[in-house]
Amino acid sequence: MGRHDANSDCTKKRVQGLPPIVSQKSKVLILGSMPGVKSRDAGEYFANPQNKFWDIMGELFGAGLSLPYRKRVARLKSVDVALWDTLRECEIKGSSDASIKEEVVNDFPAFFKKHTKITHVFFNGKKSEEDFQRYALPSLTEKKLLFARLPSTSSARAMNWDAKCRRGAFVVDALTAIACET
User: Fold this and answer.
1) CB 29 within 8 Å of CB 83
2) Residue 1 covered by a domain
3) Nearest to residue 120, comparing CAs of 175, 56, 79?
Protein backbone atom coordinates (compact mmCIF):
# COMPACT_ATOMS: atom_id res chain seq x y z
CA MET A 1 0.00 0.00 0.00
CA GLY A 2 2.81 2.46 0.81
CA ARG A 3 4.34 1.83 -2.60
CA HIS A 4 1.00 2.48 -4.29
CA ASP A 5 0.57 5.76 -2.39
CA ALA A 6 4.06 6.91 -3.35
CA ASN A 7 3.40 6.11 -6.99
CA SER A 8 0.11 7.98 -7.00
CA ASP A 9 1.98 11.18 -6.06
CA CYS A 10 4.37 10.62 -8.98
CA THR A 11 1.63 10.30 -11.60
CA LYS A 12 0.59 13.49 -13.33
CA LYS A 13 -3.11 14.13 -12.89
CA ARG A 14 -5.65 16.91 -13.45
CA VAL A 15 -6.41 18.78 -10.21
CA GLN A 16 -8.61 21.65 -9.07
CA GLY A 17 -7.57 24.51 -6.83
CA LEU A 18 -9.30 25.81 -3.71
CA PRO A 19 -11.79 28.68 -3.42
CA PRO A 20 -10.39 32.04 -2.39
CA ILE A 21 -10.13 33.20 1.19
CA VAL A 22 -11.41 36.75 0.89
CA SER A 23 -13.75 39.28 2.45
CA GLN A 24 -15.38 42.43 1.11
CA LYS A 25 -12.81 44.40 3.15
CA SER A 26 -9.74 42.64 1.69
CA LYS A 27 -7.09 45.05 0.45
CA VAL A 28 -4.18 42.71 -0.23
CA LEU A 29 -4.18 39.43 -2.17
CA ILE A 30 -1.50 36.77 -1.73
CA LEU A 31 -1.38 34.34 -4.65
CA GLY A 32 0.16 30.90 -4.73
CA SER A 33 0.33 28.75 -7.85
CA MET A 34 -1.65 25.55 -7.07
CA PRO A 35 -2.18 23.83 -3.70
CA GLY A 36 0.06 20.85 -3.04
CA VAL A 37 -1.18 17.30 -2.43
CA LYS A 38 -1.65 17.73 1.34
CA SER A 39 -3.51 21.00 0.84
CA ARG A 40 -5.78 19.56 -1.84
CA ASP A 41 -6.49 16.49 0.32
CA ALA A 42 -7.26 18.62 3.40
CA GLY A 43 -9.08 21.36 1.47
CA GLU A 44 -6.85 23.88 3.27
CA TYR A 45 -4.22 26.28 2.01
CA PHE A 46 -0.65 25.39 2.99
CA ALA A 47 -1.62 22.21 4.87
CA ASN A 48 1.90 20.78 4.60
CA PRO A 49 3.50 21.71 7.95
CA GLN A 50 6.89 21.97 6.21
CA ASN A 51 5.62 24.94 4.21
CA LYS A 52 6.44 28.13 6.12
CA PHE A 53 3.41 30.18 5.02
CA TRP A 54 1.47 29.89 8.28
CA ASP A 55 4.63 30.38 10.34
CA ILE A 56 5.21 33.68 8.56
CA MET A 57 1.54 34.69 8.86
CA GLY A 58 1.87 33.91 12.57
CA GLU A 59 4.84 36.27 12.88
CA LEU A 60 3.16 39.01 10.87
CA PHE A 61 -0.51 38.77 11.85
CA GLY A 62 -0.91 36.22 14.65
CA ALA A 63 -2.32 33.67 12.17
CA GLY A 64 0.12 30.86 12.96
CA LEU A 65 -0.15 27.10 13.23
CA SER A 66 -1.05 27.32 16.93
CA LEU A 67 -4.55 28.33 15.77
CA PRO A 68 -7.00 25.94 14.12
CA TYR A 69 -7.23 26.48 10.35
CA ARG A 70 -10.61 28.27 10.47
CA LYS A 71 -9.24 30.76 13.02
CA ARG A 72 -6.15 31.38 10.87
CA VAL A 73 -8.46 32.11 7.95
CA ALA A 74 -10.58 34.43 10.11
CA ARG A 75 -7.44 36.21 11.31
CA LEU A 76 -6.24 36.84 7.74
CA LYS A 77 -9.65 38.22 6.81
CA SER A 78 -9.65 40.44 9.91
CA VAL A 79 -6.41 42.11 8.75
CA ASP A 80 -7.76 42.52 5.19
CA VAL A 81 -5.57 39.82 3.61
CA ALA A 82 -7.03 37.58 0.90
CA LEU A 83 -5.48 34.30 -0.24
CA TRP A 84 -5.94 32.42 -3.50
CA ASP A 85 -4.02 30.75 -6.30
CA THR A 86 -3.27 31.90 -9.79
CA LEU A 87 -4.44 28.61 -11.26
CA ARG A 88 -7.94 27.17 -11.10
CA GLU A 89 -6.82 23.81 -12.46
CA CYS A 90 -3.86 22.11 -14.05
CA GLU A 91 -2.03 18.85 -14.56
CA ILE A 92 0.55 18.32 -11.84
CA LYS A 93 2.78 15.56 -10.55
CA GLY A 94 2.56 15.50 -6.74
CA SER A 95 3.09 19.03 -5.42
CA SER A 96 5.85 20.19 -7.76
CA ASP A 97 5.30 23.57 -9.45
CA ALA A 98 7.93 22.51 -11.97
CA SER A 99 5.64 19.71 -13.20
CA ILE A 100 2.58 21.94 -13.79
CA LYS A 101 1.18 21.77 -17.32
CA GLU A 102 -2.12 22.57 -19.06
CA GLU A 103 -2.84 25.53 -16.79
CA VAL A 104 -6.25 27.17 -16.50
CA VAL A 105 -6.14 30.52 -14.69
CA ASN A 106 -8.71 31.68 -12.16
CA ASP A 107 -11.24 34.32 -13.25
CA PHE A 108 -9.42 37.42 -12.05
CA PRO A 109 -11.53 40.00 -13.90
CA ALA A 110 -14.64 38.76 -12.04
CA PHE A 111 -12.71 38.45 -8.78
CA PHE A 112 -11.38 42.01 -8.87
CA LYS A 113 -14.75 43.37 -10.02
CA LYS A 114 -16.31 41.83 -6.90
CA HIS A 115 -13.42 42.70 -4.53
CA THR A 116 -12.79 46.32 -5.45
CA LYS A 117 -10.76 47.24 -2.36
CA ILE A 118 -7.84 44.99 -3.33
CA THR A 119 -4.99 47.17 -4.55
CA HIS A 120 -1.91 45.00 -3.93
CA VAL A 121 -1.10 41.51 -5.18
CA PHE A 122 1.79 39.53 -3.70
CA PHE A 123 3.01 36.35 -5.34
CA ASN A 124 4.14 33.47 -3.14
CA GLY A 125 6.98 32.45 -5.42
CA LYS A 126 7.98 32.65 -9.05
CA LYS A 127 5.46 30.22 -10.60
CA SER A 128 2.41 32.11 -9.35
CA GLU A 129 3.84 35.39 -10.67
CA GLU A 130 4.79 33.97 -14.07
CA ASP A 131 1.39 32.36 -14.63
CA PHE A 132 -0.45 35.47 -13.47
CA GLN A 133 1.55 37.67 -15.85
CA ARG A 134 1.10 35.23 -18.73
CA TYR A 135 -2.57 34.28 -18.32
CA ALA A 136 -4.35 36.80 -16.07
CA LEU A 137 -2.69 40.20 -16.41
CA PRO A 138 -3.60 40.71 -20.10
CA SER A 139 -7.30 40.48 -19.18
CA LEU A 140 -7.05 43.09 -16.39
CA THR A 141 -7.42 46.28 -18.35
CA GLU A 142 -9.53 48.30 -15.90
CA LYS A 143 -7.93 47.56 -12.53
CA LYS A 144 -4.83 49.38 -11.26
CA LEU A 145 -2.86 47.03 -9.02
CA LEU A 146 0.58 46.99 -7.45
CA PHE A 147 2.50 43.72 -7.70
CA ALA A 148 5.44 42.18 -5.84
CA ARG A 149 6.94 38.72 -5.68
CA LEU A 150 7.68 37.26 -2.27
CA PRO A 151 9.99 34.30 -1.77
CA SER A 152 8.18 30.99 -1.95
CA THR A 153 7.24 29.65 1.48
CA SER A 154 7.72 26.10 0.22
CA SER A 155 10.27 24.01 2.07
CA ALA A 156 11.65 23.13 -1.37
CA ARG A 157 12.87 26.72 -1.74
CA ALA A 158 15.93 27.45 0.35
CA MET A 159 15.97 30.86 2.02
CA ASN A 160 16.64 31.56 5.64
CA TRP A 161 13.77 32.28 8.00
CA ASP A 162 14.69 35.93 8.71
CA ALA A 163 14.89 36.73 5.01
CA LYS A 164 11.47 35.17 4.35
CA CYS A 165 9.91 37.13 7.23
CA ARG A 166 11.50 40.39 6.08
CA ARG A 167 10.16 39.88 2.58
CA GLY A 168 6.75 38.90 3.98
CA ALA A 169 6.71 42.15 5.94
CA PHE A 170 6.01 43.90 2.61
CA VAL A 171 2.42 42.73 3.07
CA VAL A 172 2.23 44.55 6.41
CA ASP A 173 3.83 47.63 4.86
CA ALA A 174 1.25 47.61 2.06
CA LEU A 175 -1.64 47.37 4.52
CA THR A 176 -0.16 50.21 6.56
CA ALA A 177 0.23 52.39 3.46
CA ILE A 178 -3.34 51.67 2.39
CA ALA A 179 -4.64 52.55 5.85
CA CYS A 180 -2.76 55.87 5.74
CA GLU A 181 -4.29 56.74 2.35
CA THR A 182 -7.86 56.33 3.58
Assistant:
1) yes
2) no
3) 175
Give first-to-last CA distance, the chain, whole Å. Answer: 57
Query: Does some domain include residue 5?
Result: no
User: For 17-27, how does the pLDDT look when each residue is reduced to its tens digit (9 = 90+)?
Assistant: 999 999 999 99
Catalytic residue annotation: 51
d(CA 80, CA 36) in angstroms, rounded, equals: 24
Domain coverage including residue 121: 13-181
Amino acid at site 108:
F
pTM greater than 0.85 (yes/no) = no
**How far is Cα 23 from Cα 168, in angstroms, rounded to an integer?**
21
- Phi, psi dihedral angles at 154 (to 5 degrees): -60, 145
Tally of structural domains, the chain: 1
What CATH number did the domain enclosing 36 receive? Answer: 3.40.470.10
Element (H, E) at 136: none
Q: Distance of CA 1 to CAs 5, 40, 42, 48, 109, Å?
A: 6, 20, 20, 21, 44
